Amino acid sequence: MPDQHRTWWKEAVIYQIYPMSFMDSNNDGIGDLPGLMSKLDYLQYLGIDALWITPVYDSPNDDNGYDVRDYLSIAPQFGTMKDMETLIEELHSRGIRLIMDWVLNHSSDEHEWFEKACLSKDNPYHDYYIFQRHENGPPCNWRSMFGGSVWQYVEKLQEYYLHLYSRKMPDLNWENPEMRQAVYDMMLWWINKGVDGYRLDSLATLAKDTSFPNVPSSKEDGLGWGGRYFLNRSPVHEYLKEMNERVFSSRDVMTVGETGFISPEDALKYAGYERKELDTVFQFEIFDRILGTGDITEPASIPPAVLKQVFTLWQEKLQDKAWNTLFLENHDLPRSVSLMGDDGLYRELSAKALATLLLTLQGTPYIFQGQEIGMTNVNYSRIDSYRDIRTFSIYDQLKKRKNLSEEEIMKVIHQRSRDNARSPMQWNDSVYAGFSKQKPWISLNANYSSINVENEMGNPNSILHYYRDLIRLRKNYPDLVYGSFVPSVSSNEDVFTYCRHGKEYDFFIALNLGKKEQDLENHEQGKNYKPLIGNYSDFIGKDNSEKIRPYEARVFIKKR
Ligand code: GLC
Ligand code: CA
Questions:
Q1: Atom of ligand 1 at shortest range from CA of 260
Q2: Is 332 in the pocket of ligand 1 (CB under 6 A)?
C-alpha cells in the first residue's frame, strides 16, 4: 500500500547549503546571503523545492556557527537581517521553502544567557545551563565530541559547566521550563518571519543523566564517549511533545531532527505518525557503522553491502509508521562519491548510481551542495590547511599515539575530516572557482578546473543533468514518492534491487554499487517493465540485460 497522507515535505527534494562555502558576493573570501541569492536561478534549474541552510546567526565561530551568540540576529559575515528577509521573500516567490538550522543542545559561551549565568549562582540564567560543584576534579569522566573532558571550571563560581561539544559551547539545561519557553519564543519569532521548517541540531542529547555517573572503563582517545548517559533518554520526548504543542502543531512548519546513533525503534519514538513530536529524523546508521565505531585509523569506506542492508532495514521498519529521510552527504561527512562510490575512474558513474539510490527510495531526499556535480574529498596535504575544530581534535588525539607517522595521520584526516564537505562550491574554472575573487577562508579542491557547475551544465550527460532528470521524475510520478518499498532479493553483495509499488505505477530499480560487472539474477525487469532512466547511455532500448555493469543504475517502470 502506498503511503496515503500527502504533505509538501514528503514530496520535496531538499538542498542543503553551507553558506560559508556556497557563494561569496563581496569578495572577502567567505560565502554570504547575497551570494546565495545570486544562485537562486541555479537552484531553480536544479529543480529543488526547499533549502536547509546551516546556522547564519551571530556567532564567534568556534564551530562555524553552531555556537550561537544571538539567535535573533544574522552574523555580519553573512549579511544583515534585511538580507535574510529578502532571501525568504525571493525564495517564496520562486516556490522554494526555507528550513533553518536550530541549535538546541548548547549556545555559545558568548551568548548573553551564559554571560549572565556566570555572574552568580543566584542569577536566573545560571539555571539555563548545567553547572555542578565538585570537590576534586571534574564531576565525571565523560568526554566531549571534540576531545577532552566535557567539564570546564569557572573560577568565579567554583563550579564546572557541562559542554558535550567545545568548551565554547555550554549545554543548555532542558530541565528548566523557563529556558525551554525562551527557546520556543525565539523559534516562533523566526516562523513569523516566514521560515518553513527547522532542522534541529544535536537533538538526541538534550536529556542528560544528571547523576553524572562515571563511564566504567577508560578508553583514552574515544570522542564523544559516555553517550549512554545522554543519548536518546526518555525526557527528550517530553520536551519534544511540548515543543510540538507550543511551536509546530498549529503551523505548517516541517521538522527534521538530527539524531545520531539511533535504531529504527528509536526513530519511531521521535517521528512516528502518532507521536506528535517530529515530522522526520536524520538517522546515520550507514555512517555510524563505519565512521562511528572501531578504531579511527581504520579505512573509512562504506561497502555496497552496508548500503543495501541499512537502507532496506530502514525502508521496511518505518514503512507506514514514519517517514524516512534520505541523505548521503552533509557538512559533517566526507563526500559520498569518495566514501561510498569511486572518486577515480568511476566518479561519474558511481555518483549517478548513488543519485539513483537517493532519489528512488521512499523518504525525503536531501542533496548537499556540490553533491549534484560529484564533488570529491579534498586531501589537503598539510594539517594547517584544515579549518574544522573536530579535525584538529582528531589530529591531536592521533599525535599522542607514538606509533603513527605524520603521513598516516594525514591519511585518516583525508578520509574523515568534515572539511571534505566544506571546501568552496566549484562554480567554474576561473581563479577560486567562481566562488570568490579573494582567497577563500578554506582552500579549494584542486580538481575545480575540471569538476564545476559550468562544465556540468554544458554536458548533457553530466551528473548534474542526471540529478535534474531524477528530480523531475519524482515530480512527474508521485508514486515514486509515495509508493511502498518492496525489496527484491539479490544474493550478490554489490547489487541492490528493489521495487516501488504505487497507485498507478510500479518501479523496479537495479543498482550495481561496485566496480565489477555482475549477473543480474533478478528478472523483475522482464515482467513488462520499460526502461525509464539509467546511467549508461545505451540502457534505453536494452531493457533485458542479465549483466549489470560497474556502478550501473537502471530504473524501470510499468503501469499497474
Ligand atoms: C551537529 C552539527 C555539527 C556541529 C554539532 C554541534 O552535529 O551538524 O556541525 O558541530 O552539531 O552543534
Ligand atoms: Ca562574503
A1: 7
A2: yes
How many angstroms separate the CA atoms of 447 and 335, rounded? 14
10 Å CB burial of residue 367 (0-12, 13-18, 19+) is buried
Q: Residue with C-alpha cell 535573533? A: 72
Q: How far apart are the C-alpha atoms of 510 and 488, rounded to whole Å?
A: 9
**Nearest CA to 130 among 145, 155, 152?**
152
Check residue 217 and report its DSSP letter.
Answer: S
Determine whether 538 is an active site residue: no
pLDDT, tens digit (0-9, with 9 covering 90-100), for 92-128: 999 999 999 999 999 999 999 999 999 999 999 999 9
Instruction: Report whether residue 103 contacts ligand 1, using a CB cutoff of 6 Å.
Output: yes
pTM of the model: 0.97
What's the gap in Å between 202 CA and the centre of ligand 1?
6
Q: How far is the CA of 6 from the centre of ligand 2 (A)?
A: 39
Q: Is 76 left (phi over 0), alpha (psi -120 to 50) or beta?
A: alpha
Does 201 qualify as catalytic in the annotation? yes
- Name which of 350, 372, 308, 400 is nearest 514 in CA terms: 350
Largest CA distance in the chain: 76
Could you identify the residue written with the cell 590547511?
Answer: 385
In whole angstroms, what separates CA 201 from the centre of its chain? Answer: 10
End-to-end CA distance of the chain: 13
pLDDT in tens, 147-174: 889 999 999 999 999 999 999 999 999 9
Q: Is 311 helix (H, G, I), strand (E, B) or coil?
A: helix
